[in-house]
Amino acid sequence: MKEKLPAVSRFGGSSSIGFRTLRGGVLMMLFSGAISSATQAEEAVFVAGEAGAADGVSFFQTTAKEVTGVVTDESGEPLPGVSILEKGTTNGTVTDLDGKYKINVASDEAVLVFSFIGMASQEVPVGGQSTLDVEMTSDTESLEEFVVIGYGSQKKREITSAVANVEEDDFVQGGMRSPMELIQGKVAGLNINRPQGNNPNGSTDIQLRGLTSLVGTTSPLIVIDGIPGGSLDLLQQDDIASFDVLKDGSAAAIYGTRGNAGVILITTKKGKAGESRFDYSTYFQREYVDRKPDFLTADQYRGLIDQGLIEEGNDLGSSTDLYDRLLNKQNLSQYHNFAASGGGENSTYRASFYYNGAEGIAQENSNKQFGGRVSFSQTGFQDKLTLASNLAVNFSDANRLGGQGGDFEQAIQRNPTAPIFNPDGSYVETQAYNNYNPLSRYANRIDERNKSTFSGDVRLTYEIIDGLKASAFGAYIRNNYNDRYYQSMNDFANRPTSEYQGMGYASKFNHLDWSNTFEGTLNYKKIFNTDHSFDAIVGYSYQYFTTEEFNVNNNGFTTDGFLDWNLSAGSAINNTQLPRPGMDSFKEDNTLIAFFARASYAFQEKYFVQATLRREGSSRFGANHKWGNFPAVSVGWELTKERFLANSSAVNNLKVRLGYGVTGNQGIDNYQSLITLSEGGVYPQEGVYYQTYGLSRNPNPDLRWEKKKEWNLGFDFLLFNNMLGGSLDLYNRETVDLLYEYTSQQPAYAKNNLLTNVGSINNRGIELYLTSTIIKNTDFSWRADLTANTQRNKVTSLSNDVFTISWIEEGGLPSPGNLGNAIRIEDGGPIGNFYGKRFAGFSEDGKWQFYKADGSIGEAEDMTTEDLTVIGNGVPKYMASLNNTFTYKNFDLSIFFRGKFGFDILNTKEMYFGNMKWLPNNLLESAITTHAELDDDPQYSDYYLENGSFVKLDNITLGYNFELNSQYFRNLRVYATGRNLLTISGYSGIDPELQDVGLNTGIDGRGFYPRTKSFALGLKVGF
Fold first, then answer.
1. 352 with 394: CB under 8 angstroms?
2. Is 641 helix (H, G, I), strand (E, B) or coil?
3. Which residues fall within 8 angstroms of residue 638, CB to CB, at 6 or more apart?
4. What whole-number percentage of the chain has pLDDT above 90?
């Protein structure tokens, strides 16, 4: 979870050096071949092998004189993985597991440079010696850890805000559908969830520290290599170096209007000076159904016919498991990533190319991607000017026809005695309520999305004087996708008796969005008299966003020969008896402009203070409130540098942090403050029909930012001789000026509704991170990492003197039945409350009974709105994860558990399919077992609420690192990963991990897309 900085060496003469852009643009000069992390050190050892000293492995060249030796630390213990470089060349090696090395140098005049993490680098002349033993001493400066904080980086010991860092070594293993899954469960308070499981075309929900808005953006701002709003589509797991999460207001205020929901900074891998490297990573992954719904088989269904519960005519003579037929049992996902990196004295590069073919567990459900990423950095002009650039591109082809929730719902409710095919080979279409044949749709429809995404950025940095740097940054992101959809003449929905009269239907949709970014900064860093450290940055930011869309559809195709590639051939253009063709286009844009400043000061590396101010303007808000100010201040105190703790054996390091910050939310639709027009009817004038236009919304010149004011108290600690480390954060955040659409007064307003600022939400919580190396010896180690958090939210206000609202309802329940909304948000109540009837039992004839407000019992028709009340809540109160990492010699094993606790789930699957009133559609078995007493129409009540708490054995990964004695291979690792292997929960549904972000939380919808276990075999090799 820590970012370890490579040993920073002192330079002189013609030392071989390189430059690496350290997250956010800080340039660190590193010796060629320096090892940047403990894992890389181990990998480098494998290059030399235990016999490295004897075999004389050299990365670069073989020259005249041979030098051998042993490198040890101050206690005399051998140091494996020490980087040894012949000064002025790219000739180098590393020590083996016993600290031994062997290198061929040009002559007796050669100088060897020894560098290692946590040790002071040494330059040792060879002279006439053939054996050089070196003792390395600790270098506390090289042990300093850096984290990205937005527009720069900072020593971890100087951080005064709530910032979490996750490095590549701590990523979740296996094949990921989204790059955000790499840190699922790794950051306390960060909730990452995929409501559709491993569906390759499913979305990923992200929420940090609870809900902060009713209609605005609720997910964190993503910043990729300095680009605010970077695209996750451009990231592959082997191209990511780290994630840094700015959790509290004092950390996120530097991003102003988009920091309300937090900020996630993603840094991609860059090239390093030294030897040229090639890296290849691959895995193959299969998905298996985790749990199949217990629906009635054909025999059980016929049993209900025998009992007289279903009419005999519903036995259609077959025995069909449609759920099984919808599965892609031969699914195989594969991933390949090949990267080349390296550099010389003044430039570095890294280029990677990938293919990621993801197949879902459902038929006609896949997403195939390929693309690449290139980064380049060059320094010159007497080492004062640096140019750094990144280019990334992604092309994807998604088959979206299968995997839709309604398809698997058909598998549950469709008559299991119905065949799939008629004797003539055509598809059988049962016509009970809401029925269709998904396999027929797969055969007669096309639903595809072809997408391309591009990102390019360049940063120019110039050191004006010592400590003062000016930087100009420009970026361009372009995202384009084309959707094609076609319904064949043979599709059941297009049958001759339908509105399409036996002819085909086609549509096209094109989406383009792009953004331009320019940011200029001036950064000054200086240390005065060794005690005073000062770091200040001022900057300007400009971003412009544009979206363009176009769609067209037509029908009346008398042949399927053209599919959707000849839209003008549809006869609906002339045949008014067919549905009317459609055409539409759309464009919108918005602009963000900001000025920002941040100053950090440290005294004796013991007392720390940081202040930030961002002033930002957005075209989205009203004329009276285009600009907003977002200040922040935070302080830190390292108590272990005070006398009363300096010699403590129990407390090795303790720092307290306190921060306050204001952030904003501008994540609403464009033009909401302005008068806009929409089409009305047409009117004739002298035989010509003219289009009319009318007011589509009320103007609101006072529309302004939602603002979040947040306090954070944090503690960072190392205890018991550094055996236990971690952090504890307590926060309280109040979001004010909440945006929501209220009923407007008429007059003076022309329209019924107005988007305006009224309410407020309070969130508070506690977050804990613990890490401990429990056992560590020569052959075996055991490390445990725990993250945990608890959160509470409350809507403190929904009304003011002008605009009032009694409550907000969400979670509309589907038909049949007019069941209304499941969730109600009220003043003084929390987000996610289920609001409905309280179950009081069944009557003798199987009718619903509920408690009324006065305590009496009535049937469904007796209930009024006054009898409804809060019956549960769908937002988890607690979340936790535990990762155990074991190593034994060259084996490593990680076991990752994750859980959520203290919330309810509304089981709508049971509400509809566990009720015999659903007949003659098929049912879940529970309809004749658990709910056998029920003989009434579906009703929403706490009868269907269940405890959703769960613990998942989320990931097990077993890996082996080969020791290689080869001049061609640096490292080789093979691994096997299993994901979602076990779920411990009292919930009776398919999976208790549902959508639990936003307003519609804890509702298990009617769709049955399978949740899966996945198993992957992977390989990583370095050349």
1. no
2. helix
3. 157, 605, 606, 607, 608, 653, 654, 655
4. 73
SS3 946: strand
Look at residue 646 and give its three-state secondary structure: helix
Cα 479 to Cα 237, 278, 510, 588, 1012: the distances in Å are 20, 30, 11, 15, 30
CA distance 683 to 690: 5
SS3 content of the chain, % helix, strand, coil (to 5): 10, 50, 40
Three-state SS annotation for 270-333: CCCCEEEEEEEEEEEEEEEECCCCCECCHHHHHHHHHCCCCCHHHCCCCCCCHHHHCECCCCCE
SS (H, E, C) 16-74: CEEEEEECCCEEEEEECCCCCCHHHHHHHHHHHCCCHHHHCCCCCCCCCEEEEEEEECC
State how far the Cα of 16 lies from the Cα of 24, in Å rounded to an integer.
24
Q: Among the residues of 626-707, which ranges form H helices?
A: 643-646
Instruction: Give the pLDDT confidence of 227-237 residue by residue, as tens digits.
Output: 999 999 999 99
- Would you mind telling me the total number of residues written for the chain in this entry? 1023
The structure tokens listed for 789 are 């958090």
Helix/strand/coil for 663:
strand
Which residues on neighbouring strands pair with residue 755, listed in sequence order? 741
pLDDT of 144 reads: 60
Which three-class secondary structure string do you get for 330-349? Answer: CCCEEEEEEEEEEECCCEEE
Q: In whole angstroms, what is the distance from residue 633 CA to residue 160 CA?
A: 9
Structure tokens at 438: 């998904």
Q: How far apart are CA 93 and CA 76, in angstroms?
A: 21
Cβ-contact 148, 23 below 8 angstroms? yes
**Cα 145 from Cα 244, distance rounded (Å):** 13
CA quadruple 643, 645, 646, 647: dihedral, nearest 10: 110
Give me 467's structure tokens: 């400590």
Tens digit of pLDDT for each residue in 251-289? 999 999 999 999 999 999 999 888 899 999 999 999 999
Is 3 a residue whose pLDDT tops 80? no
Which two tokens mark 465? 């004087």
The two structure tokens encoding residue 622: 């009203």
In this predicted structure, what is the pLDDT of residue 118? 53
Q: How far apart are CA 467 and CA 533, in angstroms?
A: 12
| Residue 331 structure tokens | 């699914």
The closest of 158, 181, 117, 1 to 771, measured between CA atoms, is: 1
Is 383 buried (19+), middle (13-18) or exposed (0-12) by CB count in 10 A?
A: middle
Distance of CA 245 to the CA centre of its chain: 11
Q: Which of 88-92, 218-222, 791-795 has the weakest average pLDDT?
A: 88-92
Q: Return the C-alpha torsion angle 18, 39, 191, 267, nearest 10.
A: 10
Look at residues 713, 715, 714, 721 and name the one whose alpha carbon lies nearest to residue 772: 721
Residue 490 has pLDDT above 60, yes or no: yes
Nearest Cα neighbor of 489 from 559, 540, 423, 436 is 559
Token couple for 255: 């991003």
> In angstroms, rounded to a whole number, what is the distance separating the alpha carbons of residues 607 and 1022?
43
pLDDT of 510 reads 97
**Residue 747 preceded by cis peptide, ω within 30:** yes
Nearest to 441 by CA among 401, 497, 496: 401
